[in-house]
Specification:
Number of strands of chain B: 0
Helix content of chain A: over 70%
Organism (chain A): Stappia sediminis
Shape of chain A: globular
Shape of chain B: globular
Radius of gyration of chain A: 17 Å
Number of helices of chain A: 7
Order of helices and strands of chain B: HHHHHH
Structural class of chain A: mainly alpha
Order of helices and strands of chain A: HHHHHHH
Strand content of chain A: under 5%
Largest sheet of chain B: none
Largest sheet of chain A: none
Membrane topology (chain A): Multi-pass membrane protein
Oligomer: heterodimer
Protein name (chain A): YeeE/YedE family protein
Structural class of chain B: mainly alpha
Largest interface: A-B, 112 and 116 residues
Family (chain A): Belongs to the TsuA/YedE (TC 9.B.102) family.
Number of helices of chain B: 6
Radius of gyration of chain B: 18 Å
Distance between the termini of chain B: 41 Å
Pfam families (chain A): Sulf_transp
Distance between the termini of chain A: 16 Å
């Protein structure tokens, strides 16, 4: 069980949106984590790697900011086995490369621009995620 | 200034991921578990982010150029191809297996636990394999 948190979730979502709007206003960039990270990886390391690294470093400090405000780190629980989790990560890496984006780039920034590619991508990954969770939990019982 | 502002915007993003609960794979997986312990919270994360971004972009994109850059870098493609759909479908399978997506796991690196670092290493490995396969395919399709 995880607690239903409509208010905090909407507030957190609004902060993600604020970050996306500011990054566009100041840098002219899409706040897509796949794209930002991809520009740091060979064979296509981008010339503008510095802002990308700074944005990711800021993201990593997010929980610290959270702790400063609330007095404690956010709690997480990884409810899957290590092999499944690592295979999942590898599959995510392949998928976001070919799909040109993930939840942030397509799901937030692209959907906000009403980009047809992002709408199709978001509906597609939401559907396959739902089917995967169903199969894992209710068919294979992992 | 560019570095500092990028860091600050990343911090706001990471704070949003932490506050919203998207940092927690258990919460993310429960959102997709309609047949089990369904937790609708993620819909509120997406809703909050979309409303702010959609309204904000409308104002921001009216400017002649971004504050610290010469132009807006916005994808212009509109075609739906197999790569896009296949890639997105594949991403969803990985997300469903693990509960982490790239935007959710990067802030989780700051929690001081091992799992997020292992997950990011696996994601980077997948991205590198895809990049190198594609650059190899490009080279064999168009020999210099």
């Amino acid at each position: 069980m995880t607690e239903f948190t409509p208010f905090l979730s909407a507030l957190g979502g609004a902060l993600i949106g604020l970050s996306a709007v500011l990054l566009m206003a100041v840098h002219g960039r899409i706040a897509g984590v796949t794209g930002i990270l991809g520009g740091l990886l060979p064979p296509k390391i981008a010339g503008d790697w510095a802002w990308r690294a700074a944005f990711l470093a800021g993201m990593i400090c997010g929980p610290l900011g959270y702790a400063l405000i609330t007095g404690g780190m956010p709690r997480i629980d990884v409810p899957v086995s290590v092999p499944m989790f690592l295979i999942g990560g590898f599959i995510v890496g392949i998928g976001v490369s070919y799909g040109s984006g993930c939840t942030s780039g397509h799901g937030v920034c692209g959907m906000a621009r009403v980009s047809p590619r992002s709408i199709v991508a978001t509906l597609t990954f939401m559907a396959t995620t739902t089917v995967t969770v169903f199969l894992v939990r209710h068919v294979f019982g992992l | 200034m560019k570095i500092l502002s990028a860091f600050a915007f990343g911090l706001i993003f990471g704070l949003g991921i932490a506050v919203s609960g998207m940092i927690d794979p258990a919460k993310v997986l429960n959102f997709f578990d309609f047949a089990g312990m369904w937790d609708p919270s993620l819909a509120f994360v997406m809703g909050g982010a979309l409303v702010v971004t959609a309204i904000g972009y409308r104002f921001v994109l009216k400017a002649p150029h971004p504050a610290l850059a010469s132009s807006f870098s916005i994808p212009t493609r509109r075609d739906i191809d197999l790569r896009l759909v296949g890639g997105a479908a594949t991403f969803g399978i990985g997300w469903g297996l693990s509960g982490f997506c790239p935007g959710g796991v990067v802030p989780a690196l700051g929690l001081g636990r091992a799992e997020p670092w292992a997950f990011v290493a696996a994601v980077v490995a997948g991205m590198l394999v895809a990049n190198f396969v594609e650059s190899w395919r490009m080279r064999s399709a168009h020999p210099a």
